C-alpha cells in the first residue's frame, strides 16, 4: 500500500492549479443517466472516486469516452469525457459498488425518473458518521415512488412515472437535494424543494440540467422550483473548480508560510473559509488568474469556528483548519455540526505533538511551539489531507499511511505541493 513521506519545514512558493470539483463531478456524471444523448463533461478531475463512479455507471449501461487521450501522455489538466446512457441495461446498483462510495446511492433519483424503477443498495454508515438516507426516501415518496426496503436494498417503483410535488426536507442535505433535482426534472408537473442545500455543487448540477433542457429556478437558494419535462438532451458542461481543494492548499500556505497562486480558484465559492484564514493571519487576494495566498513570518492567530451548510464554514475543511490551528499562538475552538464522528484526525494529529481536547462535537486546540514528524494513519479523505498539512509544518519526517483515501479526492497532490517547494514523495511498496 502506498504511503506519503513529508519532510516538513519548507515554505510553499509558486502556483497550484485547482482541479475540477470532485463533489460536483460525481452528481454531474450521474445526471448522464437522465438522457439517451451524450453528456460531455469538461474539466473532470482524475480521481479514484471518479473512476469508481465510471464503473458503477457502466453497470447501468453508460458508455464512457475520453476525448483526446493519447497513450503515454500524462494529463496536466482536467479531462473531457462523454457519458452516453443510450439504454439503461440494469436498474440495480449492487452492494459491492454502492458500499464503496456513498454518492453512488444518488443514482436512485435518475433511474426511477427515467425507468420507473430502481433497486439501490443502502450505502451504510461510514467513518465520519451514520449518514442515513431518510431524506432521499422522503423525496422519492413525495414524487410518487413506492419505496420498499428489501434485504439491504431500497426498491423504488413508479411504473406510471414520477409526479411533481412539494418536498420539504427536515434538514439540509447535499445528496438528497441533488437526487430530488434530478428526479423532479423528469417528473410530471411542478416540484418545489424546500430547505434545499445551497452548496455551489448543487448550483453546478442545476446549471448542467438546465443546459440539458430542465426547467429549474432558485438553485443556490433554499427553495428550488422545477417544472418537469418529458425528456432531457445531451449538453456540454465544465465542472466547477474544487473549493475544498482550494481551501486545503490555502491552509497549507497559511501553515508553512510563503506565497502561492491557486490558479483557476473562485473566491465566491468559499468566502467563509477565506474569512477564517485571513483572521488566522494569512493574506488572501483575488487576481485575474485565481487566488493568491500569502503568509510571511507573522504568528498564526487562533480562531473560533463552527461548521455549517453553505455559505457557512464547510465540514470538508474542518480537519485541515484543525491541523493549521495546532500551531496557532493561543487556543482555538472548532465545532463540527454536520457529522457526528468527524474527528478521526485528532488522535493522529496528537502523534505529531498537537494538543487537542474533544468534548462531544467541540474541539479545543491549544497551539504548540513545534510539531514533530511521526508515522500517522489516514482515516478518511479530509482527515488524510489534514495530516499532510501537519506534516508540512512538522520537524522531520511524517509518513502518512493508507493514502488511498487521499487519492479519492486530491488530484496529483504530491506533484502540486512539491512544485511549490514541499519535500513530499510517494513510497510504493
Ligand atoms: C456531501 O455529502 C459531500 N459529498 C460531503 O463531502 C460533504 O461533507 C457533505 O455533503 C456536507 O457538505 C459529496 O458531495 C460527494 P449530506 P452528503 O447529505 O450529500 C444528514 C468529502 O469529504 N442526512 O449533505 O452525503 C447527514 O447524516 C465528502 O468530499 C440525514 O440525516 O452529505 C449529515 O448529518 C464527505 N438524512 C447531514 O444530513 C439523509 O437522508 C448532511 O449530509 C441525508 C443526510
Short account of what is shown:
The protein is built from 14 helices and 24 strands. The chain is of the alpha/beta class and 429 residues long. Helix 6 runs parallel beside helix 7 (200-211).
Provide a descriptive summary of the structure in words.
- The chain is of the alpha/beta class.
- The protein has two domains: 3-18 and 241-427, Alpha-beta prism (UDP-n-acetylglucosamine1-carboxyvinyl-transferase, Chain); 22-238, Alpha-beta prism (UDP-n-acetylglucosamine1-carboxyvinyl-transferase, Chain), CATH 3.65.10.
- It is 30% helix and 26% strand.
- The chain contains 14 helices and 24 strands.
- The chain has helices spanning 22-31, 48-60, 95-98, 108-115, 134-142, 174-185, 200-211, 243-256, 271-279, 318-325, 345-351, 381-393, 404-407, 413-418; strands at residues 3-7, 12-17, 38-44, 63-66, 79-84, 92-93, 117-121, 146-150, 153-157, 166-168, 190-194, 215-217, 223-227, 235-238, 258-263, 283-286, 290-295, 304-306, 331-335, 355-359, 362-366, 375-377, 397-401, 423-427.
- Helix 6 packs parallel to helix 7 (200-211).
- The longest helix has 14 residues, at 243-256.
- The termini are close together.
- The model has no long low-confidence stretch (mean pLDDT 95).
- Ligand EPZ is lined by residues 23, 26, 102-103, 129, 131-136, 171, 173-176, 201, 315-316, 338-339, 381-382, 409.
- The site of ligand EPZ has 24 residues, from helix 1, helix 5, helix 6 and helix 12.
Number of helices: 14
Query: What's the architecture of the largest domain, going by CATH?
Result: Alpha-beta prism
- Radius of gyration, in Å, reads 22 Å
Shape: elongated
- Quickly give the structural class: alpha/beta
Mean pLDDT over the full residue set: 95
